[in-house]
Amino acid sequence: MVALFPITIDEMKIDDIDAVQEVERASFPVPWPANAFRHELTQNKNAHYIVAREGDRIVGYAGLWLSLDEAHITTFAVLPECRRRKIGERMLIALFERAEKLGAEWLTLEVRASNIPAQRLYEKYGFRPAGIRRRYYSDNNEDAIIMWTDRLRDRAVRERLSKLRASLEAGG
Fold first, then answer.
1. Does residue 122 carry a catalytic annotation?
2. Distance (Å, rounded) from C-alpha 45 to C-alpha 51?
3. I need a surface site. Which of 2, 27, 96, 156 has the fewest CB within 10 A?
4. Of these residues, 40, 54, 89, 110, which one is catalytic?
5. Per-residue pLDDT tens digits for 124-158
């Protein structure tokens, strides 16, 4: 698929939920219901969600929860036909930036043990496996790999993120 419009990363709004649901259904065997996103946006003060837009079309979304000094990435998806276009990387950088602004010390997430492309993306950005949640996913009882970053304020983390951001901005 050729990009027709530049990708922009914005805050998720209530009006985005229908389009986010399309990405959710295309990406996961057991999608979150629309009311879960509505609750996150209106009731959960620790929740922060973004969308990736190509023109007016939402092609990806991600979210995190701030819990004390850690930011937990709760969900992350790109439309299957839009993957491998660095949209996920742009969203991940936006989540790093948001976590830092919120005062988080670390980022963490769970990823399916079988989702090697996602694991490689997270590793590229400095996440490392830290444990396993056995039978975490309810659709097939698949294990989740728990991944963590080093401290966000560490020089190595900042330098990695700066280099990756510069590479993306240069079209790399």
1. yes
2. 18
3. 2
4. 110
5. 999 999 999 999 888 889 999 999 999 999 999 99
**CATH T-level assignment (fold) for domain 7-169:** Aminopeptidase (3.40.630)
For residues 111 and 145, is the Cβ–Cβ distance under 8 A?
yes
Active-site residue flag, 110 = yes
Measure Cα distances from 111 to 4, 94, 171 in Å. 30, 19, 27
The active-site residue, picked from 24, 122, 123, 136, is 122
pLDDT, tens digit, for every residue of 79-106?
A: 999 999 999 999 999 999 999 999 999 9
Distance CA 63, CA 11 (A): 10
The H or E element that residue 76 is part of is strand 70-78
Q: Is residue 80 helix, strand or coil?
A: helix
Residue 128 Ramachandran class (φ > 0 left, ψ -120 to 50 alpha, else beta): beta
Sorted by where each begins, the domain ranges of the chain are: 7-169
Question: What does pTM read for this prediction?
Answer: 0.92
